[in-house]
Design brief:
alpha+beta, five-stranded antiparallel sheet, 9 helices, seven-stranded antiparallel sheet
Length: 427
């Protein structure tokens, strides 16, 4: 772990420094003008960590469709059936994807003559009472060879409509977990795991209100053997080599052209165009300015330094903290914030907005904490604000900056798919 981040985390844990109550944005929820108009393609958060049940496996989580109110019926949330949702892995440090896991979806309706999502209590995924369903297909693409193979297919977990519709919701949801050859996959609604105070938009007002409590999100969760994603198919025997670090990011892509027909149908044409991208939390949210946010979502990570490096070297966040809160963040040094750029390039990898994790021999889940991956319970908002400010603390480390929200509203699970069960529309 980078020494700067380690110092910041040590300071936060010890509670030895002043904590400013600054509210922060959601990691990547409605973070750019373009994607704010395309809710179902909006990538909200990415997590990756060594599996808590098998340290020879890597877990990747990509969340989409932000800030979902559980009771939003009668057309409940799902994944888009004309989008590609992808998890990309760079396993040689050049910030270019070497492996892609691609999810695609197809919707089904048993009875179109009712407005009901389900026509009675649902006790299994196969229940005839579940009127609206969605199937998925997961493929693995190896870019060096162009090989594309089907990994798994299955059914999206249904929306948690309420206790009358789902007397035992989690039993039904866990039926959506599919496993084969050491790989497990899940698609469906979960409790929103990103905890934060969203009142930041009121001029960084202090408070600490957990505004994402009670909110759901659409989650893709994938657990794979590390040998499936490591360079040359072998787990590195070292933690210091460039190939010991893999970078993970997620994207959503849509067809280039859509033609709307008078019969309420539509036709899609052309190649798929990337419309959303996410690696680290809060990069496009609070580092990239408005004029380039849509550009970020359409761009590739290997161009991040040339496209957005100036914003990282001279970030706006410390200036706002000083202006509004008098936080005392130091002025940007001559040459810029190379310390932050360095965090994006561990082990000599190409600097880019990838969520990187060391998969070297001996790594365990207890070491999978941001910025070495990102565990579900990591308070990344406090960590990133602290590092962005960069104010030294008495006795070493950095002065802690926080939003006042330090934990999720529901406990995470210890077994796949690890995220908490979604909130009920009628608890």
């Amino acid at each position: 772990m980078n020494k700067l981040i380690a110092s910041a985390l040590a300071t936060l844990t010890a509670g030895a420094a002043i904590t400013y109550g600054v509210r922060s944005e959601a990691s990547s929820h409605r973070e750019a003008p373009g994607i704010a108009e395309d809710q179902y393609a909006d990538n909200t958060d990415v997590y990756t960590f060594i599996s808590p049940t098998d340290d020879n496996k890597l877990v990747m989580v990509a969340n989409f469709v932000p800030l979902l109110i559980p009771s939003s019926g009668p057309n409940f949330y799902k994944f888009s059936d004309d989008a590609r949702y992808e998890m990309h892995i760079d396993n040689d440090g050049d910030a270019r994807e070497d492996i892609t896991y691609r999810w695609t979806f197809e919707n089904q309706t048993k009875n179109g003559n009712t407005f009901l999502y389900n026509v009675g209590p649902v006790d299994s995924l196969a229940s005839p009472n579940l009127n609206v369903t969605q199937s998925w297909r997961l493929e693995k693409i190896v870019h060096k060879t162009g090989q594309k193979t089907k990994v798994l297919d299955g059914q999206t977990a249904p929306w948690h409509v309420g206790k009358r519709s789902f007397p035992n919701y989690e039993k039904v949801a866990l039926e959506a977990v599919k496993s084969s050859n050491g790989t497990s996959a899940f698609a469906g609604p979960r409790d929103e795991p990103f905890f934060v105070d969203l009142h930041v938009f009121d001029l960084l007002g202090v408070g600490g209100a957990p505004t994402t409590d009670g909110i759901n999100v659409m989650s893709l969760v994938l657990e794979v053997p590390i040998t499936e994603i490591a360079k040359d198919g072998t787990r590195p025997a070292s933690t210091t080599a460039k190939e010991s670090v893999v970078g993970v990011y997620a994207t959503t892509s849509r067809p280039q052209v859509r033609i709307l027909r008078k019969n309420r149908q539509s036709d899609d044409f052309g190649k798929f165009i990337q419309v959303s991208r996410l690696g680290w939390p809060l990069v496009n949210e609070v580092i990239v300015p408005l004029k380039d946010k849509d550009k970020y979502n359409r761009s590739e990570p290997w161009n991040d330094v040339s496209n957005f490096g100036a914003y990282i070297l001279d970030p706006e966040v410390p200036k706002l903290l000083n202006l509004v809160l008098g936080a005392g963040c130091p002025a940007t040094p001559t040459g810029g914030r190379t310390d932050i750029v360095g965090l994006l390039a561990p082990n000599g990898t190409t600097a880019a907005d990838l969520l990187r994790i060391n998969i070297g021999y001996g790594q365990t889940n207890t070491q999978s904490h941001f910025p070495n991956g990102r565990a579900l319970a990591d308070d990344v908002t406090d960590t990133l604000l602290t590092v962005a400010c960069g104010k030294p603390a008495a006795g070493g480390g950095l002065t802690a900056i926080g939003d006042g929200v330090s934990a999720n509203d529901k406990a995470f699970t210890t077994t796949f798919p690890y995220l908490a069960s979604p909130h009920s529309g009628n608890p």
